[in-house]
């Protein structure tokens, strides 16, 4: 069993949940963002969440969600964490955390050294931070694009809250990413798919093997 904690994100079918659990998932993520090929309805997410074994953290990923959407999600889906993957400010992160009483993970896009100070603005309000590749202006979603950032930018950097590495990770590159960055947690979505939005059980198993 790997010591690296894995988040399998963008699950949309019961068999995805089963494959992630079998591979030793620490977290599973459900995407609530209509522009994503991984978008699930609140009802589907509730059904999937009910299948998640005890001990695996169930995460709802939203992008600039308002309270009305977050109310509906949290009223219906049994969750353990909220992942904010948009342009939410530190004040909004604090507001969401207080309103829902759930741990919050804030995603921050990284492209160059200049993006690193942004991380510091969230460490006092977020329970975890997630370092993802910064989307390009042409991307119609802020994550799940299968793009990696330059991992050497964060080699030997540490933050006072738990953090997760994301962006373009695959079974083929995840071990090197962990070695270079020292990440103890990784988050994958498109790298474990056979087509956009379709999780591949063989890639999920290969990912776990790559970190074993
Ligand atoms: O997965 C999506 O479609 C998505 C949509 C909007 C925001 C974030 C999204 N995914 C998250 O992005 C990172 C990196 O994904 P990938 O492995 O490069 O495909 C990860 O945290 C996903 O959960």
Automatic annotation (TrEMBL):
It is an enzyme of class 5 (isomerase). It catalyses: N-(5-phospho-beta-D-ribosyl)anthranilate = 1-(2-carboxyphenylamino)-1-deoxy-D-ribulose 5-phosphate. One of its GO terms (molecular function) is phosphoribosylanthranilate isomerase activity. InterPro entries: Aldolase_TIM, PRAI_dom, RibuloseP-bd_barrel, TrpF_fam. Keywords: Amino-acid biosynthesis, Aromatic amino acid biosynthesis, Isomerase, Tryptophan biosynthesis. It comes from the Bacteria. Pathway: Amino-acid biosynthesis; L-tryptophan biosynthesis; L-tryptophan from chorismate: step 3/5. Pfam families: PRAI. The keyword Isomerase applies. The keyword Ribosomal protein does not apply. Its EC number is 5.3.1.24. Signal peptide: none annotated. Residues 7-209 form the N-(5'phosphoribosyl) anthranilate isomerase (PRAI) domain. NCBIfam families: PRK01222.1-1. Belongs to the TrpF family. This is N-(5'-phosphoribosyl)anthranilate isomerase. The gene is trpF.
């Amino acid at each position: 069993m790997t010591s690296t904690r894995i988040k399998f994100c963008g699950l949309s079918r019961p068999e995805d949940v089963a494959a992630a659990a079998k591979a030793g998932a620490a977290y599973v993520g459900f995407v609530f963002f209509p522009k994503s090929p991984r978008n699930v309805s609140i009802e589907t997410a509730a059904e999937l969440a009910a299948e998640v074994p005890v001990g695996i953290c169930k995460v709802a990923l939203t992008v600039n969600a308002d309270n009305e959407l977050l109310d509906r999600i949290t009223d219906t889906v049994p969750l353990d964490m909220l992942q904010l993957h948009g342009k939410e400010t530190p004040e909004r992160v604090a507001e969401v955390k207080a309103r829902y009483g759930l741990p919050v993970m804030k995603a921050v896009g990284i492209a160059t050294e200049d993006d690193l100070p942004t991380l510091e603005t969230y460490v006092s309000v977020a329970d975890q931070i997630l370092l993802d590749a910064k989307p390009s202006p042409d991307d119609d979603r802020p994550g799940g694009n299968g793009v990696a950032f330059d991992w050497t930018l964060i080699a030997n950097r540490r933050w006072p809250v738990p953090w997760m590495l994301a962006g373009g990770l695959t079974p083929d590159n995840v071990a090197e990413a962990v070695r270079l960055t020292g990440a103890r947690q990784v988050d994958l979505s498109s790298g474990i798919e056979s087509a956009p939005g379709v999780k591949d059980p063989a890639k999920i198993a290969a990912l776990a093997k790559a970190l074993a």
